Amino acid sequence: MSRFHLVLLLHAHQPVGNFDDVFERAYRQSYLAFLDPLERHPGVRIGLHLSGPLWEWILARHEDYFARMAALVDRGQVELVGGGFYEPILVSIPPADRAEQIARMQRFLAKHFHERPRGAWLTERVWEPHLATTLARSGVEYTLVDDNHFLLPGFEPEQLFGYYRVEDLDAALDVFPGLERLRYLVPFRGVEEILDFLRSAAADHPGGMAAMGDDLEKFGVWPGTFDHCYTNGWLERFFSALDANADWLATVPPGEYRREHAPLGCAALPTASYREMMEWALPTPARRRVERLEREFASRPEVQRSLGSGVWRNFLVKYPEADLLARKMQYVSRHWARRARPLGRTEPQRLAEAREHLLRAQCNDAYWHGVFGGLYSPHLREALWHELSAAEGLLDGASPAPRVRRAGLGAPRRAELYFTAGAYSAILDSADGATISSLDFRSAGAPLVNSVARRPETYHERLAHASTIVPGGEPASIHDRARVKEPGLERLLRYDRWRRHLFRLLVFPEGKQPEDYASLSLGEAPEPAGAAYRAKRISACRAMLEAEVSLERAAPCRARSVKRFEFQPGDDSFSLRAAVELHWSDGAWARCRAGIELVLNLLAPASADRYFAFAGERQPLGWQGAAPSGSLRLVDEWRKLAVEISAPGAEGFWIAPIETISESEEGFERVYQGSQILAVWPLELSAQNPSWKAEAELRVQIL
After folding, report:
1. Using CB atoms within 10 A as the burial measure, which of 175, 257, 434, 564 is most buried?
2. Pairing of strands 435-441, 446-447
3. Active-site residue (options: 56, 215, 496, 644)
4. Which residues contact 498 (CB under 8 A, 6 or more apart)?
5. Among the options 79, 124, 276, 457, which is catalytic?
6. What pLDDT sits at residue 295?
7. Could you give the dihedral angle defined by the CA atoms of residues 198, 213, 31 and 90, in that order, rounded to the nearest 10 degrees?
8. Looking at residue 377, what DSSP letter applies?
9. What is the pLDDT of residue 345?
10. Do 680 and 652 meet the contact criterion of CB atoms below 8 Å apart?
């Protein structure tokens, strides 16, 4: 009787910008630890994909790992699988960049292991039908998705014990369905339970296969799994059981199985990802409905398979911060293509370096949010903004003249102005209160505006019932956990009305205090803060915009709001001034307060080398309170930069940290997303007192 086949494709990745100690811990606890039992069991044969950022880090820190991996490849125990080198979501990047990302991984593996990969790992298993053409034209012969991709268009579960051919126009690609059931069994259940599942599948599908594609980090990095897999010997027992049952069960890499077995047929797969990802991508109200339906039909898997769910691209709708980052990446890609196209195959060094930065900026993690997504991780967002700034600086040359472009990042749906010079780049969003949505200090490679709005997430409802993280305990899939890093996080939940930009105008009642600002209870009038402004005059370093606004909710005072922005570029410094005017039009007398809000993020809220400086004292960036009038400095000694804020005539500055409560592999956690700073003035406006003016200025320089 022909043997049943277990096709394991494991994937290891650490994102661009992740901390070195995180790389090292994952390497020790998973990537290296996994090799020992694998080498002791030569009959266990797998497919393996490591992402480019991880390969580069290992090459720089642990080059001996390459020799051990090469030995496993040479004896046919490991089949290395390609993919996009810097682990992009392929559908989110331009076609030429897709081809280059795939080719870079192919060249890297051929150089170091003398074998060109035939397959490709699909980042986060994000599939769209046209990818069959993208992958096939890059020389990719197979990939793996989840069973979810097949179940959504109507495949039955019993049809998924083989692979299928997928066609797009004149291209063909073979696709393996990874079984969700195996993902939840391995390594979280007993070895015998897994063997029982495989025996049952073998009885029903003689000579067939069951595939699993999942993270290598689940063997050692996920909470509790190092002790479970290595200290307590689960992985050794699993591999020993596979050896002991070799008479009916063979582990085989995906490419080898494909060479020896024909596809079961053809499939037409929809836009999809794994089930959890498609739920994370849903808008929060829709995700809550889906979760309620899943609980209601927990015993009806055929109903659960039919529940609607989101697509990966919806993250760029759900999170405007991700959309802005993606549009900046696509803009820089077009910028690179314009510079490179006339040169043909000749690529000067600076263009090659610029493309390297661009491709690194396409690393997927900071573009989405779920248990594994890094949108809420400021250091991951910062890394990608840094890469894009470096790429753009190389493309623009050493001393570019100041300039401005309308619809700055090529998105006609947004009324943006894009200002650039040697020391800075900035995006002015006239449709969102005439605010600065992005500000890069190019001289230091630092994005200064790098925050996310606090918004409701579905998992916030589970916070009150989550358990505090404690050492030990039984390991479980990350998708089954609800744990918090510190108690009481639910008390910190608050939600922003506005995106976290620079120079937003807030008009609010007189009696409000700094504590109200910190708790987002100013009760500010909506129109001055978020109105769509019209650009009236624009030049390379200046812009004037205006809007008609209502200043109060109850008895409206109508006014014309005017904002003037002025950049002063320097060699390794710049200043940006925003002057605000309100001119009474009609209605009630307005007697209240007004503030110009600035949101800045230097990343480290408790570090001694990053701080606020005012009135002869220092406070950490996580500080909350009121600073006196005069100048306020934010200092980053690590990156050697300083930002000085002045607001002539202001009563003072109100300051509070922006902290999100988000879900990660380790559980629910508090994350510093920058500081909100409000320069505050008294405001009176009426027919007898028809005008009010204020201004705030940032001066940014190298220390």
Report:
1. 434
2. antiparallel
3. 215
4. 432, 433, 453, 504, 529, 530
5. 124
6. 80
7. 180
8. -
9. 57
10. yes
Strand pairing report for 119-121 and 82-83: parallel
Strands 652-664 and 667-685 turn out to be antiparallel
Residue 585 placed within a domain: yes
Closest CA relative to residue 99, chosen from 139, 127, 142? 139
410 in a structural domain: no
In 3-state terms, what secondary structure has residue 399? coil
Contact 142, 118 (CB under 8 A): yes
* Residue 124 falls in the annotated catalytic set: yes
Residues 6 or more apart from 319 whose CB is under 8 A from it?
Answer: 368, 369, 375, 452
pLDDT, position 411:
61
The residue to which tokens 């849903």 are assigned = 282
- Which parts of 267-377 fold into alpha helices (H)? 275-280, 284-296, 301-304, 315-318, 320-340, 349-360
Domain span including residue 620: 427-703
Q: Which residues contact 233 (CB under 8 A, 6 or more apart)?
A: none
The span from the CA of 563 to the CA of 76, in Å, is 66
User: Would you state the structure tokens that stand for residue 506, as one six-digit string?
Assistant: 């807030």
**Cα gap 126→312, rounded to integer Å:** 7
Give yes or no for a contact between 392 and 335, defined as CB atoms under 8 angstroms apart.
yes
Which residue ranges in the chain fall short of pLDDT 70? 1, 302-308, 343-347, 398, 408, 410-414, 464, 466-482, 553-555
Nearest Cα to Cα of residue 30 among 196, 211, 187: 187
> Active-site residue 243, yes or no?
no
Q: What is the pLDDT of residues 568-594, one digit of tens each?
A: 999 899 999 999 999 988 887 778 999
Residue 460 in 3-state DSSP? helix
Q: Using CA atoms, how far apart are residues 367 and 376, in angstroms rounded to an integer?
A: 9
Encoding tokens for residue 490? 């639910």
Q: Is residue 427 within 8 Å of residue 321, measured between CB atoms?
A: no
Residue 222 lies in a domain: yes
Contacts (Cβ under 8 Å, ≥6 apart) of 346: none
Q: Could you give phi then psi for residue 8, rounded to 5 degrees?
A: -105, 125
Q: Assign residue 258 the CATH number of its domain.
A: 3.20.110.20
- Determine the 3-state secondary structure of 682 from DSSP: strand
In this prediction, residue 165 carries a pLDDT of 98
Last residue of a domain, one of 273, 292, 323: 273
- Distance of alpha carbon 255 from alpha carbon 237, whole angstroms: 26
- pLDDT on residue 407: 73
Query: For the domain that residue 515 is a member of, what is the CATH number?
Result: 2.70.98.10
SS3 22: helix
| List of residues 6+ apart from 39 with CB closer than 8 A | 68, 72
- Residues 592-630: b if buried by 16+ CB within 10 A, e if exposed: bbbbbbbbbbbbbbeeeebbbbbeeeeeebbbeeebebe
Q: How many domains does the chain have?
A: 2
Last residue of a domain, one of 221, 248, 273: 273
Q: Which of 84, 212, 193 is nearest to 138 (CA)?
A: 84
- Residue 183 in any domain: the answer is yes
42 token code pair: 């030569």
Residue 561: what residue type?
S
- DSSP annotation string for 172-225: EEEEEEE-HHHHHHTTTS-HHHHHHHHHHHHHHSTT-EEEEEEEGGGTTTSTTH
Q: Which two tokens stand for residue 555?
A: 């008895």
Determine contact, residues 506/594, Cβ cutoff 8 Å. yes
169: exposed, middle or buried (Cβ count in 10 Å: 0-12, 13-18, 19+): exposed
Q: Residues for the chain: how many in total?
A: 703
Looking at 457-603, list the stretches that DSSP marks H as alpha helix, in order from N- to C-terminal side. 514-518, 526-530
Task: Give 565-568 contacts, CB < 8 A, sequence gap 24+.
Answer: 565/428, 565/436, 565/503, 566/541, 566/542, 567/402, 567/419, 567/421, 567/424, 567/426, 567/541, 567/542, 568/541
